[in-house]
Amino acid sequence: MEVVTRAVIVYIWSLILLRLLGKGLTFQQKPYDFVVMMLIGSASAALIVNRDVPLLNALVALGVLALMHTLISVGTLNNYLKDILGGQPDLLIRNGRIVKANLIKNQINMNQLMAGLRIKGYHRIQDIEFATLEANGQLSVIPKSQARPVKLTDLKIDSGYEGIPTPLIVDGKIFKANLHNLGLNNKWLESELSKRGLKEPHKVLLALLDTDGSLYIAEQPPINSIKAFFVGEGKDTPLKKGS
After folding, report:
1. Is this model's pTM higher than 0.70 or not?
2. Model pLDDT for residues 213-227, shown as the tens digit of each residue
């Protein structure tokens, strides 16, 4: 029972610390981000099963790790400390030519470089203007102008504004705030649903309103079809569209 209690407490405390550290911890991870996540993860796992370590002391230690990371993150606002702690980006390709010195410096071989370029959608090194290994270990690629995809602006075509659809219903739940932001209400939504033979919102799996005013509606599949799908006796029910 003690192990269960420790596991619950350590889990909740670790979640709190990660939330306090912010989304930057998982977005474009820097070396010190990786270190603190590794330490918190390893320490948390050990604390759950190691009864010799007092729980309070362990929680304080995890808090100290989080505090140190926060101080380091603030310190990296200084350019000098940022270069020391976070590192600098390195050019791997410049004007279609491989910068071999930086490949050696970062212990990257040609197979890894080519794989990174393929993941980005490029197969010819001569089409690359710059390929940069960022400080977080990600590869960013800027192709030469003649190798870039043609855009509608290049063809002088006005594509108009597209934007992204706004969810109005997700898994039977109405997003009233989204309706309000669009100047709509429940009465309008119920009217649109009734046009498609749907009387109750909970029967809707997904309802999206596009920026052009079109409404996409996917019905909830029947319960019996879901059961059949999970036991392998049938196929998933196709979603229905409305416009």
Report:
1. no
2. 889 998 887 765 544
Q: Are both 90-147 and 166-231 of the same fold?
A: yes
To which H or E segment does residue 25 belong? none
Q: Do 82 and 76 meet the contact criterion of CB atoms below 8 Å apart?
A: yes
What confidence tens digit (pLDDT) does each residue in 182-209 have?
999 999 999 999 988 888 888 888 999 9
Superfamily of domain 90-147: bsu07140 like domains (3.30.240.20)
Q: What residue ranges in 27-165 does DSSP mark as E strands?
A: 90-94, 97-98, 128-133, 139-143
The values of phi and psi at residue 170, to 5°, are -130, 115
Fold classified for 166-231:
CRO Repressor (3.30.240)
- Nearest Cα neighbor of 171 from 219, 224, 235 is 219
d(CA 36, CA 16): 14
